[in-house]
Amino acid sequence: MEEQREGANNALYHVKILHSSATEVYSQDGSLDLSVGDLVLVPTRYGLELGRIKGTVTRDDNREQQICRKATEADCERYELQKEKEADAFRACKEKILEHDLDMKLVSAHYCIDEKKILFYFTAENRVDFRQLVKDLVSVFKTRIELRQIGVRDEARVLGGMGVCGRTFCCHGVTDKLRAVSIKMAKEQNLTLNSMKISGPCGRLLCCLAYEYDTYRECRKALPSEGTRIKTGGGALKVVDINIFNRQAKLEAEDGSTLLLPFDKLLHDPKRGQWGIQED
User: Fold this and answer.
1) Run of H or E including 121
2) Model confidence over 187-198: pLDDT tens digits?
3) What is the pLDDT of residues 213-248, one digit of tens each?
4) Angle 119-123-128 (CA atoms, 0-180°, nearest 5)?
5) What are phi and psi of 176, to 5 degrees?
6) Nearest-CA neighbor of 108 among 157, 141, 45, 144?
7) Are strands 11-17 and 69-70 parallel, antiparallel or unpaired?
8) Helix-helix angle 131-141:73-99, to 10 degrees
9) How far apart are CA 112 and CA 43, in angstroms?
10) How far is the C-alpha of 78 from the C-alpha of 189, rounded, in Å?
11) Are 33 and 7 in contact (CB under 8 A)?
12) At a CB cut-off of 8 Å and minimum separation 6, what does 69 contact?
């Protein structure tokens, strides 16, 4: 659970890295007075980065790193200046990619806050031999160069954008924990299986399909599955639809007529393993 303020020693914080939108857990020894929204400098596997405090956590299963310090006004100014340099670096790298005719798509260029290296993120269908590209970039920028291949969902997280719901991408604005999403989740929620409607701009299934999946699955445990036949005095009825929102089941008779019943009218006999309908 996240809180708005934490004053205890050795507190754990969720920190969102500004450039990549990735979130990591960091600790601090109590010497920093931190609040939600504060900008801090944190170590990452790529170097020192500027991040924003999103809240506190009570525990973390991974070995967390420590927040270096609060960001100063000079740090923020340097970050904004670097964004201009990143635009130039992006253009230069893209030109070199074209020169070498490499089958890769450049996603972003990024200077670490300490400017010890430039990171170039890219996507590609296959492995890319970019050794000569790196040599060329080193000769241009006279600093360490690192190229990182990422997936299309990571690309969406880094760049951000607006989803079909009209809100910012979940992976960019809400969370970066890219939970596996399957077509089964769409089926469980009675959503259309049209890939155009259940896929995001990244071309993968919408992250939000996973949000309510567990609730749907838990609710359906106490209900008959579609296709179940229920015997009544007037003949057998077949379950053709379960509407979780309306809390109604649609039943079809042998003559093709349909009947809508609220969930509380459906009864299950665990001994016989059969479903029935509560008589009025």
Assistant:
1) strand 117-123
2) 888 888 888 888
3) 888 888 888 888 888 998 887 788 998 988 888 889
4) 85
5) -110, 5
6) 157
7) unpaired
8) 130
9) 10
10) 47
11) yes
12) 32, 40, 41
